[in-house]
Amino acid sequence: MRLISLIAVILAPTSALSFDTTPSADDLALMADADVVIVGETHDNPAHHAVQAEIVAALDPPALVIEMLTPDQVAELEKDKPGYSAGWEDAGWPDYAMYLPVFSASEAKIFGAAVPRDVARASYSDGVAVHFEGDDALFGLDQPLPKDQHDQRLDLQFAAHCEAMPRVALGGMIEVQRLRDATLAKVTLEALDATGSPVVIITGNGHARSDWGVPAALKLARPDLNVISIGQAEDGFAPEGGFDLIYDAPGVDRPDPCDTFK
After folding, report:
1. Of 248, 181, 187, whose CA–CA distance to 211 is shortest?
2. What is the model's pLDDT at position 168?
């Protein structure tokens, strides 16, 4: 299971709220006026991908930015979307069949924004700025995080790893998360410049959160952008971080994620 799915399970709020299950006409009109629409997910929830496909089909965007794919994988995907498999399962993502409707919902040009594993591993120890392929200052990577945000992120990682790893070992996970946020933002700006708006980003809820995820990176780089961030809840339990819109779906039956650490 991907880390962000783990976080979604472990750090659910203590009380459920009521959210719409699908976008309304007003919601879609709001998205259509945006420059960038970020649609989060819990990776292994098929209902979340159904909502993403619905949004992509309705907006018919010129570009999709995908967290799960590298540029090389996109080239293979475009040759045969239904039959694509290269590297997908090896990367640890859930069943490709859940994502195919999203990739096939429009004729959008697909941009891959995945961080290769070796780069992620290196940034864990070396820091994000060393391995980011772009202007690190544009996305604030040349500066340390504010202490309160760093501490909050460390708490999140500690809980996501079932309190089974020492906190001192988890700082690198924050660097990897910052690298992925910045890479998604960089590729999104490239897609926006190449194709126009709206650009739709398909990513995990943790990257879609407005307080410090991709929306914050985009606003830092281009403050004038109109960015809509969408989170997807399970059983009324919203992901943390703040979103412009939240949709709800039934949760997925999962094994205890902490079994991995026992």
Report:
1. 181
2. 84
pTM, two decimals, is: 0.93
**Rounded Cα–Cα distance for residues 66 and 71 (Å):** 10
Tell me if 119 sits within 8 A of 110, measured CB to CB. no
The Cα-based distances of 192 to 61, 158, 186, 189, 217 in angstroms read 10, 36, 10, 5, 15
C-alpha neighbours within 13 Å on the C-beta side of residue 89? 4
Each as own residue / partner, the long-range contacts of residues 4-7 (CB below 8 Å, 24 or more positions apart, any chain) are 4/42, 4/43, 4/204, 4/205, 4/206, 4/207, 5/42, 5/43, 5/44, 5/204, 5/254, 5/257, 6/160, 6/161, 6/257, 7/156, 7/159, 7/160, 7/206
| DSSP state string for 56-103 | HHHH--SEEEETT--HHHHHHHHH-TTT--TTTGGGT-S-HHHHHHHH
- Kindly give, in sequence order, each residue whose CB lies less than 8 Å from that of residue 52, ignoring residues fewer than 6 positions away: 39, 41, 102, 202
Contact 185, 213 (CB under 8 A): no
Distance of alpha carbon 208 from alpha carbon 198, whole angstroms: 16
pLDDT digits (tens, 9 = 90+) for 191-242: 999 999 999 999 999 999 999 999 999 999 999 999 999 999 999 999 999 9
Each residue's pLDDT tens digit, 26-70: 999 999 999 999 999 999 999 999 999 999 999 999 999 999 999
